[in-house]
Amino acid sequence: MTDRPATNPSKAHAIVTEVRRRIVEREWRQGDRIPDEVELAVEFGVARATVNKALQLLAEEGLLDRKRRAGTHVTVNPARKATLTIPIVREQIEGAGMAYSHRIIAQKHGPAPADIASRMAEAEGTMMIHLRTVHYGDDKPFQVEDRWINPKAAPGAEHVDFQRINPNEWLVRNFPWLRGDIAFSAENADARDARLLETRQGTALLILQRTTWNDQGAITSVRLAFHPGYSMVASP
Amino acid sequence: MTDRPATNPSKAHAIVTEVRRRIVEREWRQGDRIPDEVELAVEFGVARATVNKALQLLAEEGLLDRKRRAGTHVTVNPARKATLTIPIVREQIEGAGMAYSHRIIAQKHGPAPADIASRMAEAEGTMMIHLRTVHYGDDKPFQVEDRWINPKAAPGAEHVDFQRINPNEWLVRNFPWLRGDIAFSAENADARDARLLETRQGTALLILQRTTWNDQGAITSVRLAFHPGYSMVASP
DNA sequence: ATGCTGATTAAGTTTAGACATAGAACGAAG
DNA sequence: CTTCGTTCTATGTCTAAACTTAATCAGCAT
């Protein structure tokens, strides 16, 4: 059961809550045009800017549609949004009260295969660093990481001792990104996944595939395979 | 490859972009304290409120940490956020250029089993509506939906013809929610999943489990199993 | 050293007012 | 009836100023 953040006592937040209530209790129904900012400002006894802030929050949430001149309407088929927080693996494991450790299974320097290169918008065969890492919580495998790092966008990676600091953490600390692609899927564990995650081949695994970019190009592309049964929670 | 929304020409957005650049190009490094709002307002030639808006956006994004009196710092281990948009299935399928159809496999009124009841914070055995639906795109199974609806929070569900309007759409249109829980996981298809999705038992499936609530309690709890190979994309 | 207290500071929020602009509505011309 | 300007309006954005508040810091007392 998720609880609403924490009661923010601001006037804008009170308006958000009240408008949400009117929508949920169907005082204002889907498609209805709601009073304009000036009217609401009068009703709530606040400045227009405050109403504007509140309604913009609700529009972001997907509950309202706002258009200049046309006014603000209750969204007809709200496609609601959920936010996923993707923390550093170590913090995620430690946050769950487990002891973190990791092992580098393989590390080499070599040409990127076609699929990786295309995902990273680099020429096939571009030299990159390839790493396979397992992250453990209380010595049980938590996540298998298969990562390609582009030295062009992340210089210095060649000389890092990834036994000391895991690749995820080193990159997060040293290469903030401008944009990234993230996708989730499910895959049956292949022989290697199964061995590293200490499970049986064919077990369903949650897979997260992510590529991040900075001004120099793609920094890294990674495939994360979580241990069987892992569930990723999103907050609405 | 994801592109940044659309260039918003506002001053606040220009500041967001510039601050992001300074962080990405490591002019400002992790842990650094950045100039305060007044200084930045002078530097950029705008009002403090405009700087405030920009920095709040970056704080939400996870790139900055802001504390009263302590100032604004570049986040040390940024746990970046990704947003998932969860549209109506029909719109998702039609948006992909396929023809939408659905089939109700089972519909009955009965007592909720323990796990569902607890997820919905209702007493075990509470009478609910149980539905199993398959959603198709171009007559290929896209998603299997296993849903429990709580008539207490969603009155009227007993008399709806779900062959005409699918349960997802009817609920979204009639019962906006206040909060919800969403979780992703991977499961091996059981015999029923496999049959409905026209795949082999054991195939890895992406599972989305969601429960939504309004002021009357839990509206509905649903398990969505996507077709094999489905990938859900998040936007950062 | 340790703990308390009050001053100070930077962010948080709100306000009133102004101007910009998308786009709906309307009317004139074809 | 359609098309093309024009007008008008609700939202978008910004400003300058004020007040609020969390939290740090320094000074004082223990």
TrEMBL record, chains A, B:
<dbReference type="InterPro" id="IPR000524">
    <property type="entry name" value="Tscrpt_reg_HTH_GntR"/>
</dbReference>
<keyword id="KW-0804">Transcription</keyword>
<dbReference type="InterPro" id="IPR036390">
    <property type="entry name" value="WH_DNA-bd_sf"/>
</dbReference>
<protein>
    <submittedName>
        <fullName>UTRA domain-containing protein</fullName>
    </submittedName>
</protein>
<keyword id="KW-0238">DNA-binding</keyword>
<dbReference type="InterPro" id="IPR011663">
    <property type="entry name" value="UTRA"/>
</dbReference>
<dbReference type="Pfam" id="PF00392">
    <property type="entry name" value="GntR"/>
</dbReference>
<dbReference type="GO" id="GO:0003677">
    <property type="term" value="F:DNA binding"/>
</dbReference>
<dbReference type="GO" id="GO:0003700">
    <property type="term" value="F:DNA-binding transcription factor activity"/>
</dbReference>
<dbReference type="InterPro" id="IPR036388">
    <property type="entry name" value="WH-like_DNA-bd_sf"/>
</dbReference>
<feature type="domain" description="HTH gntR-type">
    <location>
        <begin position="9"/>
        <end position="77"/>
    </location>
</feature>
<dbReference type="Pfam" id="PF07702">
    <property type="entry name" value="UTRA"/>
</dbReference>
<keyword id="KW-0805">Transcription regulation</keyword>
<dbReference type="InterPro" id="IPR050679">
    <property type="entry name" value="Bact_HTH_transcr_reg"/>
</dbReference>
<dbReference type="InterPro" id="IPR028978">
    <property type="entry name" value="Chorismate_lyase_/UTRA_dom_sf"/>
</dbReference>
